Amino acid sequence: MPENEGDCVKGVTYSYVVSNVGDNDQRIIDLDRERDGISVDLKALIDEPDISPGRFSVARESDVLDFCVERIVSTSAEVTSEALGIGDLTCSAQNTLSFPISISCNVAVEVSCFADEANGFPVPCDEFNPLRDIADAGCEHVLKYVYTVTNTGPVDDVIQSVVATRNGESFEVLDQEFNLAPGEFRDLDEFVLVDYCQGLPAELNTEVEVTADMLVAGGSCFDTDDYSIILPESQCSLELSLSCSTFDGKECVLYPGKELCKHHPSFLEFKFVGRPCSHGGYKFSDKYKCDDYGAMESISTVHITVTSIKGDEYFAASVAYGERIRIGHGYERLHDILVVNIFDRAHGKLLQRMNIDASCSNPLYTLDILGGLILLGFGDEKHHVSIPDNEFQLSYEITNIGYTPALLEGLSVAANDVEILATPLSFLQLTAGETITGTEIIDLSMASEPVTLNGAVLAENLSGVSCDTTDSLEIGIAEPPSECRCIDCPYAYKFKYTGGTCDDSENSQKFWCSDKESISDWVRIVVTDHKEKYVFFEGDVEVGQLFEIESKHKFPEYTVFKIMVKDSHGWSVAQVVKFNTSCEKPLFLEDTFGAIQVYGWKNHKQGTIVVGGDNTHC
After folding, report:
1. How far apart are CA 147 and CA 267, in angstroms?
2. Among 8-17, 40-49, 201-210, 262-271, where is mean pLDDT lowest?
3. Helical H segments across 477-617, by residue range
4. Cα(458)–Cα(417) distance, integer angstroms
5. Residue 559 forms beta bridges with which residues?
6. 490 to each of 429, 587, 589, how far by Cα in Å?
7. Which pTM was predicted?
8. What is the DSSP string of 143-159?
9. Helix (H, G, I), strand (E, B) or coil at 609
10. Is the pLDDT of residue 478 over 80?
11. Of the given ranges (65-79, 167-181, 310-324), which has the lowest mean pLDDT?
12. Could you give the count of Cα atoms lying within 13 Å of 164 in the half-sphere of its Cβ?
């Protein structure tokens, strides 16, 4: 392939090989060649006209070709021979050689970019982040774009244009045309001043196209390349992450409350929430009365007294916001009407006075709000209801994911659009990549439906430009406990081994449970009456497994469950549970006593009751 116009015409040699593929000696009579419409007899060029079987003879022809003219070069040859010693027997053969003469223009362009950091331009633009410390690096920086044009073809090229397009705007990089020999390259430099602090797009993209012509044959060619820079945020950029947990590290779920007080209680459990009478909403009893004499919202500790309407004292103590209190002794009924006085502890001023109907003759539910108190429980010697107070730990994590420092003003959290938390952060400076964490207590006692927590961080960069961020968190409602109560002494039970501890118990009975050592996934369970006269069940059980017990007669008042684990010395008792199985005491489907869960029963009045069953007779 010619590199320039002076190398177009080249001498070439054609070789014609004639082979004797027969069984007799052959003598070449004619060797005719045709090229470009011209026929020539090449018999005189044969080096040996007589050819023995299996041998060959060669004719070589010299010619010139213009390699700067694109075309198909075709040469045909036909040979004629006669068999020696046989008479007038002749034979012939022919072949054709064709090849193209083509000239290709090949040019390549590559764009690169370097930033003006320290000595020269050593840092690639896509790795350059000047906003990590804007105070030292400044906002304005020069970027050096380098367009490298290379002749990758076999002939000289004329580089006619190098056009760059940056974010939609095109411009010519080349000042004047220049020649490039095969394998030669040239760098074209462009310098761009960029202010990283002023309204840059998210991406700075540069595309380049080079166009070239060959010095010979008149062909042209082009190539393209591009370079993208993902620019750092000129404003601060933050990320907020909220998480919620109970005080023992479990997932936050709201206990819906609304358990109805059905019997005249001997005690009531309240939580002080510091609300005015207008925020209460309790309207079920005409005996309820509430009057405000001062604001409680900003007071963290008050003094509360509770008496009967006749003056019998039930409670008198200082109470902090969010603290639970119990009114009543638990062994005798409360008076019908209780008088609650809430005082400013520091100054002795009366803030709120209420008359509360404590007889439960009018509807009274858990989570009812009565002025500055919310009801969380009630009970007597036989019945006891106490619900969680829906108080949680809200953890937050704020990370600076940008390149400039951020000044944190504060964190606010709203529950269903009502602000419940406002934490000042005192314009704390958060540098790039830095994270701060914190935990706050949130009180959702008055929530009776799922809650969406919306958190917002108020922040700005050093120039005062806002860079707030938000996050949200859903807290759902816990599944209500089973309302299927055992109303007749069973003759058969189905239980589930949960592997839980005494602290995991959830039921409405007075029961006995003792954790003696850690229990395992596989245990041996022994079920007897409380006098250990009858053994209802004994067997090996794993976590999640169901087991049944039966009695020919009614179950005794109390049944004992011994959960045993095996060690090197044999079986030892890990947990002992005793509870009422006669159904004379409250017993509900899915009640748990330590590691034992009530999964079902059979009795004469209700038939078969089981978790997930029809249970129409509950």
Report:
1. 86
2. 201-210
3. none
4. 17
5. 529, 579
6. 67, 11, 13
7. 0.45
8. EEEEEEEEE-SSS-EEE
9. strand
10. no
11. 65-79
12. 26
Q: Is 355 exposed, middle or buried (0-12, 13-18, 19+ CB in 10 A)?
A: middle
Biggest CA pair distance of the chain: 155
For residue 563, give the nearest of 577, 545, 549 by alpha carbon: 577
The answer to whether residues 296 and 342 touch, using CB atoms and an 8 Å cutoff, is yes
State residue 284's pLDDT score: 62
User: What are the tens digits of pLDDT across the range 381-412?
Assistant: 666 777 777 889 999 999 988 767 788 999 99
Q: Summarize the confidence of residues 362-372 as an average pLDDT.
A: 86
Q: Where on the phi/psi map is residue 98: left (φ > 0), alpha (ψ -120 to 50), or beta?
A: beta
Tell me which amino acid residue 94 is: Q
The total of other beta-carbon atoms located within 10 Å of residue 273's CB is: 21
- Residue 24 CA to chain centroid, in angstroms? 86
What six digits make up the tokens of 377? 């429980």
Q: What is the three-class DSSP state of 529?
A: strand
532 DSSP assignment: S
Q: Torsion over CA of 129, 135, 136 and 138, rounded to 10 degrees?
A: 60
Instruction: Identify the CA nearest to 483 among candidates 260, 228, 221.
Output: 260
- DSSP structural state of residue 433: T
- Reported as type and span, the H/E element at residue 137 is helix 134-137
d(CA 396, CA 374): 28
DSSP conformation class of 506: B
CA distance 292 to 276: 7
- Quote the strand ranges of 309-446, DSSP E: 313-320, 324-327, 337-344, 350-357, 369-370, 373-379, 384-386, 391-400, 406-415, 418-430, 435-443
Give burial (CB, 10 Å; 0-12/13-18/19+) of 413: buried
Write the CA distances from 194 to 118, 142, 191, integer angstroms: 17, 6, 10
Q: In whole angstroms, how large is the CA radius of gyration of the chain? A: 48
Query: In this predicted structure, what is the pLDDT of residue 134?
Result: 47
**Enclosing H/E stretch for 225:** strand 220-230
Surface-to-core class of residue 73, CB atoms within 10 Å of its CB (0-12 exposed, 13-18 middle, 19+ buried): middle
Residue with tokens 């004639």: 18
Pairing mode, strands 435-443 and 391-400 = antiparallel
Q: How confident is the model at residue 199 (pLDDT cuts 50, 70, 90)?
A: low
- Helix/strand/coil percentages in the chain, nearest 5: 5, 55, 40
CA gap 32, 16 in Å, rounded: 10
Geometric angle at alpha carbon 420, from 418 and 422, rounded to 5°: 115
- Backbone φ and ψ for 44, nearest 5 degrees, come out as -70, -15
Q: What is the pLDDT of residues 216-230, one digit of tens each?
A: 666 788 999 999 887
**Residue 94: exposure state from Cβ atoms within 10 A (0-12, 13-18, ≥19):** exposed
Q: How big is the CA angle at 337 (ends 331 and 340), to the nearest 5 degrees?
A: 95
Q: Which pair of structure tokens corresponds to residue 505?
A: 């118990």
Question: How confident is the model at residue 5, as a pLDDT?
Answer: 55
CA atoms of 282 and 370, how far apart (whole Å): 6
